[in-house]
Amino acid sequence: MTKEFQQADLSGRNSFHVKQRAARLVEFETADDLRALFAAGIPDRWMVLAGGNNVLFTCDYDGLLLTPVSQKIEVTEDDGERVRVRVDAGVEWDDLVEWAVRRGLWGIENLSLIPGKAGAAPVQNIGAYGREAKDVIERVEMYCVESGSMLTLDAAHCEFGYRESVFKHALKGRVVITAVEIALTRTPQPHLGYGDVEREVAARGGATLRNIREAIIAIRRTKLPDTAELGNAGSFFKNPIVDQPVAERLKTEWPDMPLYPAQEPGKAKLAAGWLIDKAGMKGYREGRVGVHERQALVLVNLGGATGGEVIALARKVQTAVRDRFGVEIDTEVNIL
């Protein structure tokens, strides 16, 4: 079943709370809904707007927005240790994490409190505290707009990378994700080696699923603003990946600079938040927008800002980092 809106107000459907409109917005539940919707033809412009947590509208959207609303979570296989779970695209990601923790299932606890829908997780390959969605995703179910058929893509063909996937490139504008299949385990597999996680977990009594989830929630809440109070999209910038010699040179100049291994050989990952801070932009404000005072990766709408104002600030931050370190930082947020 679908629900359609004309000239839809998007201010409550994007976490930046930017006041733009969409010519047409349709909430859908099933693949049959999508099939019926596209039966009349494929619109010139369309895209999926799930939770609106990784998007910045800079103008009204003159096409069709699709929003998944089905919220079913079901176990499809359980051998006593390994548990496979099918999750509808409309499920809130953090609701899924809580669902897993309550059932003693390991694998996504480090991804606690990440805003957004489950269907968006493979697109962005969401990640936090040393873990990524690709670590648990086995398959992605999707509706092919061109053929009108359902397809299933194995994780090996999703081309997952750091905040990357095939859904942002070859399959962009061609498919609609309807569900994600993930594999969890009952065998404890704590990952505590990132940031303050180990200390916070120890303070709660040790590495249980519940303690890890609560520790990460506490850490995130101290660093990230509540979207209900300050419009934002979480991390606005990606951590830059640079050649190892560049990383070593910077580390020599800045001994306290955080440095992490990258998946690609001969590369290293820098901390964009640290770079922004040292470039003097943490806490910077300009009119109705600003860089958050506790987490420099986050740009915030201080009240009534437009998408254009946010973009202008982002460019200023990028320029400051480039001038100070000679490093480019790319945006993580989808800008429309």
Structural summary, described in words:
- By secondary structure, the protein is of the alpha+beta class.
- It contains eight helices and 20 strands.
- The protein has helices spanning 31-38, 93-102, 121-124, 197-203, 209-223, 244-253, 272-278, 307-325; strands spanning 3-9, 21-28, 46-48, 55-56, 61-68, 73-78, 82-88, 127-128, 131-132, 137-144, 150-154, 175-185, 231-232, 241-243, 259-261, 267-270, 285-286, 289-291, 299-301, 334-335.
- It is globular.
Task: Please describe the structure with a list of short key phrases separated by commas or semicolons.
336 residues, alpha+beta, Uridine Diphospho-n-acetylenolpyruvylglucosamine Reductase, domain 2, Uridine Diphospho-n-acetylenolpyruvylglucosamine Reductase, domain 3, Uridine Diphospho-n-acetylenolpyruvylglucosamine Reductase, domain 1, 3 domains, four-stranded mixed beta sheet, 8 helices, 20 strands
